[in-house]
């Protein structure tokens, strides 16, 4: 038995709560995962996991073993990272989860610059607007917008991003140009943006001085994905309130026209978050540093 491999596999089963998910995250057959766990339990002469047809639970002995071996794995990663950082360029694969508009309008176009610096790193992007579980899905880091409220994650501020309200010329020809945010509640159709996590409509924030409005508005179409939100605006289906980086090319081409420009909300914070108990490899560290640099170019 490869004891170190068995310990790493056991840790992934505990973290994912599933033999199948652990096997997927480690890119190995489920039968291999099961075999290593059985061999580890036989070697230790204790039951680490309680299996049932529906789930896997950690025994008392298993929880104690995980707590101690998790520290061992982190210490080993620290040692490896120290030597790799001193002698080699960062290399290997990292898994990053990111919202769709951040990926297509910001991250992917800039990746050639990242690869020119770190050609031996492979970036696996999970692109969606859903809320992922970093531990169970074995994600190294995630980019999230808004205040960082999750106390279970460590986070680093990437920067603040401006927002803009805009509409297609065809829409403005049909409905006219609103002069106050309150008009979006009844007179001017908007494109609703629904949370991919809760399906609730996310209000658009408008601010001017000490005044502010959170507008939901009336809409004929609602979406829960950033690129679809922009596409619906370009199609003239309603007013959109989005991040400037996501619509800048359409503003430059005239496909979208900014409106209500004196009602600009405060810049929106973006963070990169990662599990606090997971050692950050050199490849993840340099990627996060690169993200901070990238976001510093936004206005």
Explained architecture:
With 299 residues, the chain is an alpha/beta fold. The chain folds into three domains: 3-86, Orthogonal Bundle (Arc Repressor Mutant, subunit A), CATH 1.10.10.10; 90-154 and 269-295, 3-Layer(aba) Sandwich (D-Maltodextrin-Binding Protein, domain 2); 163-266, Periplasmic binding protein-like II (D-Maltodextrin-Binding Protein, domain 2, 3-Layer(aba) Sandwich), CATH 3.40.190. The protein is built from nine helices and 14 strands. The strands form five sheets. It has a five-stranded mixed sheet, covered by helices on one side. A three-stranded antiparallel sheet has the order 12-7-13. Strand 9 and strand 10 (211-215) form a beta hairpin.
Secondary structure tally, helices: 9
Largest sheet data: 5 strands, mixed
As residue ranges, the low-confidence spans are none
CATH class of the largest domain: Alpha Beta
Give the helix/strand class.
alpha/beta
CATH architecture of the largest domain: 3-Layer(aba) Sandwich
Tell me the distance between the termini.
55 Å
Helix and strand run: HHHEEHEHEEEEHEEEEHEHEEH
CATH superfamily of the largest domain: Periplasmic binding protein-like II
By DSSP, the count of extended strands is 14
Provide mean pLDDT, rounded.
87
Our count of domains comes out at 3
**Overall body shape:** elongated
User: Looking across the biggest beta sheet, what order are the strands in?
Assistant: 4-3-5-14-6
Kindly state the percentage of residues in helix.
40-55%
Beta percentage is 15-25%
Q: Which value, in Å, is the CA radius of gyration?
A: 24 Å
Task: Classify the fold: give the CATH topology of the largest domain.
Answer: D-Maltodextrin-Binding Protein, domain 2
